[in-house]
Give the backbone structure.
Amino acid sequence: QVQLVESGGGLVQAGGSLRLSCAASGRTFSTYDMAWFRQAPGKEREFVAVIRWSGMSTSYADSVKGRFTISRDNAKNTVYLQMNSLKPEDTAVYSCAARLGAALQYVSSVYPYWGQGTQVTVSS
């Protein structure tokens, strides 16, 4: 089992940057695929980015491709989401999630472990 704690959210102007962190407990972090999802008020939770346990494969939602970068440091049990060129429509609660699996997954229901989320607000 793994416990996740996000940090790094906040208020930023459009065009700015933020880096989110997700710290994981447990000695098996390096075996989990890690993903970021977000949920805006009144909207469904949506996939943002995912990284394979090895760090060798990543995938992004079209809406963030070229602006966001997911990475991980297995020695620090941490996954990151670097967000650049932020837009007001990026405003949401961002949550990290973990799962064991054989392939990258983009559906939130297959992730059993979740953090509490961190708020990102982008002003215009």
